[in-house]
Known about the structure:
Oligomer: single chain
Distance between the termini: 48 Å
Largest sheet: 6 strands, antiparallel
Radius of gyration: 34 Å
Amino acid sequence: MSLNWKEINLILEELDIEGAQIQSAVQSAYDVIILRLHKKGGTKQILVSLSSGACRIHETFLAAKGAVPKNDKPLRFAQFLSSKIVNGWITEAVQLGDNRIVRVTVKRHESIFKLYIRLWSNAANFIVTDEEGVVLDAMRRHPKRGEVTGGSYAPEEAEEKNDLPQKTARKEYNIREIPGEGSFNKKIDELYASQGGSLSLDALREQARRVCEGSMGKIASALERLREKEKAFTGADRLKNYGDLILSNIAVIKPDDKWLEVTDESGTIRIELEPRTAPAAKAGKYYEQYRKAKNGLADIQKEIEEGERELKEVTERLERLLGETNPLVLAKILKTGGAGSGVKISKKEKSRPGLSFKRGDWLIIVGRDAKENDELLRRHVKGNDLWLHARDYHGSYVFIKQRAGKTVPLDILLDAGNLAIFYSKGRNNGKGDLFYTHVKYLRRAKDGPKGLVIPTQEKNLHVKVEDERLRVLENCKC
């Protein structure tokens, strides 16, 4: 629901902002600006929303308590407004006819600026021009319409060219009856906060529910799979028992036997053997399977514990989000994943093993042993991240975290290659060959040691260790 032209006139009349000074401009979301104004008698905070289906301008009382969230990184248009109109004085605030375009004229020092707030649902915009109508900037840049820096915007001329027959044929609008108490501005503010468009609490809470319940569903599915693995590993003691029974009956096992049958108080046990394989060697295989199962069980139980804790955190997060009463704060949390009211939407980052190096915008991670390599592969890297490993030597896995739409620069690849050689058994050679591929092209070696992977679609790289490069990387640890 967007405001009609009669409602905009009533809002401007109640606001009475001519003669007010603009103290700040905050862009709490891409399409929402909050202007803080001071006039003799008090301070007002004016919300301008260009959200589709909820275009409006009115005083906001939620923001009056100082609860206007700021983006962690200031947005472009708010920075522009701060440089041009903050500390300026409003000399005029009018609607142009019945076209739902509000013109606010601001004088700052000797400069005159015109702020055009166009409240059309399908073409809303906030455009700033100089006194001559030359566009200085716009919240939404539209080059084809001239709504970019250097363009021209003069809606007054279009209004003058409209002829009366077209105007009188338009739909007749009235000021709607809005429930609540106080001014029309206050009623509108409360209406939109509770049920109006993308900034309403109802819509934002539904979005929060979708985000959190989606995460909860994924975590629950992962926990179910882990518990199935836990069941499979829980019987690991029988593998050790098989090895013990083979060794204790080694004297009666013949070279071609496929099975060993022994009887105890629990009944008859059949143990599979391998013909032409020494019984002691087969017992050793059962002991190795037992060891891996025990280690795997410990890892899986740790993952289950972490998953249950994460599920609890997301559940509590959803409860806090649903309890948030300020739609501006809730909208920012959902949009940026940042903190607000003690809440975070973004997934909590687990502590990362190994070493991390930050080179510009690129993150390089080094696993120093099999345990760290395995942990990084399981929980901290994704399919498009790059994996490097020294050829023919035991050593570290090195990962370059992928950046969306970016190709890894050669310099970053050489950084990672130097680290891969330096943290391998071949570091004393001062050079070496390595291979690299994307994580999605790695597969775990069946029954292999922890962390062992077999790469496919790998490429080769010869690297000479550069002492200066390593010194620079040492200062980039994070």
